[in-house]
Amino acid sequence: MGVNDLRKIKDNKPLLKLLSIVTLIFLCCNLPSLTLCLAKDLFPPPNTEVLVSACKYPIATGVPDGEVLFLHEVRTGKMYLLDLRTGEKRTTPNDPLLLEKGIFLSSDLVWLEGSLVRPDKPGYRPHYILDLTDGKRYELLDLDTLPRLEGGKFDPKNYAYIQSAQYIYIHHSKNTLVALSADFRTNPNSRVVFSDSAEELVQLIKNLNMNYELIDFRLYDTDIPSPTNKHVARFDGIYLTQTNQRITSGMYNYFKGWYYDDSAIIVQDGGDYLLTFPGLSSIFMYQVQF
């Protein structure tokens, strides 16, 4: 832009007025947000370390083993796994269902939740397992779609699909069980999904003398034991497993997951609930004083 062009703009008072208004609106909309998110980074709560800046509008999803944390930076559009041991960022496959329907089973496997309608209905979408190491999907056999007994009762012989599995996962708020065998990638019958009330699913696995892992981090619906089972996260705080003594109060909806060695928990503060600027929530590593 030359000198003459600048003079033309200077002489064009309506244009200058419009530019001034646009600049003012931009500053009013962004400066408070920027100031608040920087303040959250510079002045975190006691005993915490900021893992992801609030300025990136992060959304955190816990992973059961506590080795990694799945992060979506809304402002940058980036999605990755944050290695909690090394701080390394691992890229994730570009799967369209990962962000909206992905529920982590481990650092490498994600359950992509299917549709609620049956296969014979419009809009049906199967359940899948997404392998994060290579981006491949594996369709799950839905035991709810198998032939039923008289009166619509589930055929107990189909529990054999679950009994043959090595890994059982239960999601309480979704009332769903996922069962995988070691050869699930090559054997379609060794990867199944089954729905019932969470209480019934837990009792079923106990009756089968099997173990299961929780994949639901909503403390509204269940308690979340730590990776070493020394502690348990509940809606109202962190407890010692053996003595049931509460050592930290008030997890509520801030809890996102455990640290791999029980030394800390991952929390996302409630900025987006307390303030009018959406997304202003830093993600912290909170070092619990055990």
Description of the structure:
By secondary structure, the chain is of the alpha+beta class. Among the domains are: 1-43; 142-214. Helices cover 21% and strands 29% of the residues. It contains six helices and 21 strands. It has helices at residues 3-11, 13-42, 98-101, 160-163, 198-207, 271-274; strands at residues 48-52, 58-62, 68-73, 79-83, 89-91, 102-104, 109-112, 128-131, 137-139, 141-142, 167-171, 176-180, 191-195, 213-214, 224-225, 231-234, 237-240, 246-249, 255-258, 265-268, 283-286. Strands 10-13-12-11-14 form a five-stranded mixed beta sheet, with helices on one face. A four-stranded antiparallel beta sheet has the order 1-21-20-19, with no helix packed on it. The longest helix is centred in the N-terminal third of the chain and has 30 residues, at 13-42. The chain is globular and about 65 Å long. Mean pLDDT is 81; it is low at 19-34 and 271-282.
Can you give me a brief rundown of this structure?
With 290 residues, this protein is an alpha+beta fold. It is 21% helix and 29% strand. The strands form 5 sheets. A 5-stranded mixed beta sheet has the order 10-13-12-11-14, with helices on one face. Strands 1-21-20-19 form a 4-stranded antiparallel beta sheet, with no helix packed on it.
